[in-house]
Request: fold
Amino acid sequence: MFRDGVWRTVYGWLDLERVSIHRDLKTRERLVANCHVPDTELFPIRYRSVGLRTVSFKAGLELTWFQLSMTGMALITRVANRLNLPNPDWTKLAAPLKRISEWKWVWALGSDCGGMRVDMDGVIKLPSEREPVPRRVTWQLYGGSGDGPQIPCTPAVVLIQKLIDQTITDAAAAELHRPILPPPSQPHLHTPNLSALIDSAAPSSTAGGGGGVCKRSPPLTAGAYPAVGLMTLTEFTRSLERYDIRWTADNN
Reply:
């Protein structure tokens, strides 16, 4: 994780923290713990020019005892590593845990609702103030009726549609073709070549004839590429309108 301007080692499903989504969105408080996602590597690179100091991502299961079980397994693994013992093979528990999760009484303890919360802390220069003042912006999203899984899928849906419609600008396409720079001592993750998808989806003519709109994108070499800056929040939320998903933003 990137903390205080330095890359630091943290351990998955540890560092428990309790968070809550805005009460008007009717979601519960949840325990969350460290989770590795692309955001933790992309954001320090993309926003370093504005002095970004810390990026943290945590995830949590709805049922507290599920989350504590995950943390317990993580602690056992951490202790085993410290003592140079073999890592426990948790895969042996996958089948029985899956059966338990499908019991009706376990289902009754949970719900079909989920949420996401993004906190941004920094300083802002206000006309009425001589010096920058601290400010927190909290963006929260609620997914009900079992529609939560649509949230992580939607950016890919929007991006694919933009590739098909050829509405990605030259600047955005250049951003797409710029490989990610991995943090120190971290391997560069590779993904399948996307050129086949682009070639089959995008016709050769320019859509709409507008200036700054790309024709067929050049082939992409194998590698992980950032998709940041390729869509707006409006495009994202518009694609979710048919689902039971709401969001709000607060300035503190």
In short: Residues 176 and 227 are 6 Å apart (CA to CA). The longest strand covers residues 114-124. The longest helix spans residues 64-82.
